[in-house]
Amino acid sequence: MKAKIKLLTPLSSKGIEKLKIGDKVLLNGIIYTARDAAHKRLVETLKRGEKLPFNPEGQVIYYVGPAPARPGRVIGSAGPTTSSRMDPYAIHLMEVGVKGMIGKGSRGQKVKDAIKKYKAVYFTAIGGAAALLSEHIKKAEVIAYEELGAEAIRRLEVEDFPLLVVNDTKGGDLYQEGTRRYSMSV
User: Fold this and answer.
1) Which residues, 6 or more positions from 149, have their beta carbon under 8 angstroms from its beta carbon?
2) Residue 99 · residue 115 · CB < 8 Å
3) 13-185 — its CATH code?
4) Cα angle for residues 51, 48, 142 (degrees, 5° grid)
5) Could you check whether the bond before residue 10 is cis, i.e. omega within 30 degrees of 0?
6) Nearest to 134 by CA among 122, 142, 125
7) What is the pLDDT of residues 56-83, one digit of tens each?
8) How far, in Å, CA of 154 to CA of 34, rounded?
9) pLDDT band at 186 (very low <50, low <70, confident <90, very high)
10) Mind telling me the catalytic residues?
C-alpha cells in the first residue's frame, strides 16, 4: 500500500509534478473555497483587470459550500460539490496561478488539457464524508462575497486534509483509468 503524500500550500509546479493519479494526499496549509457564483465573480474580476480577493499563485480552490458551524466548531459539514460546474471558469484561474482544485466528479477535456498545460492538479475529496472532512479544517474565515452565504469565498486552514489525485500534470485521469480497469475485469 502506498504511503500518503504530505503536501503544503501554496503548491508549486515542481512539487506537484511528482503526483500521479490515485496518489493519496494529506494537504496542509491554506486553501480557498469557491463555488459557481464565486467563480463567476472571480473571472469577471480578472476580465476587468482587477485583483482577486486572494493571491492565486500556487493556491488550491475547494469546491464547497459549507454548512453553518455548530457551537464550538470553526465550520459545519464541508463536503465537495460537483466540479464540472466550475469548468467554464477553472482555466482562467489556472492561467493566473491556481495550482490545485478539490471537488468531486470528472472534468471536461478542456480543463484536463489546461491542468497539463499549467502544471496543476485536480483532487477529489470523498463525497458523503462532509462531517469527517470538516474535522481537518482548523480555521475558517469569509474573505470575499459574504452576501453569497455558503458560497462566499472562505480562507481555510487545513491539517492533513485527505485527498486523492484524479488528474495529474501529465494528463492522467483516474476516472478513465478506473473505467478501463473495470471494463477489462468483467
Assistant:
1) 65
2) no
3) 3.20.130.10
4) 40
5) yes
6) 125
7) 999 999 999 999 998 989 999 999 999 9
8) 8
9) low
10) 39
Cβ–Cβ < 8 Å for 81, 64:
yes
* CB contact set of 142 (below 8 Å; sequence gap of 6+): 152, 153, 154
- Residue from 117, 130, 168 nearest 33 by CA: 130
DSSP 102: E
Residue 163's closest CA among 68, 62, 66?
Answer: 62
Grid cell digits, residue 160: 492533513
Look-up: residue for cell 458523503? Answer: 128
Instruction: Dihedral sign for Cα 29, 147, 122, 116, please.
Output: negative
Q: How far is CA 47 from CA 11, 43, 93, in A?
A: 24, 6, 11
pLDDT at 23 over 90: yes
Q: How confident is the model at residue 131 (pLDDT cuts 50, 70, 90)?
A: confident
Per-residue cell: 92? 482562467
Cβ atoms < 10 Å from Cβ of 141: 12
Q: Per-domain residue ranges for the chain? A: 13-185
Q: Quick one: the chain helix, strand, coil %, rounded to 5?
A: 35, 25, 40
pTM (whole model) above 0.85: yes
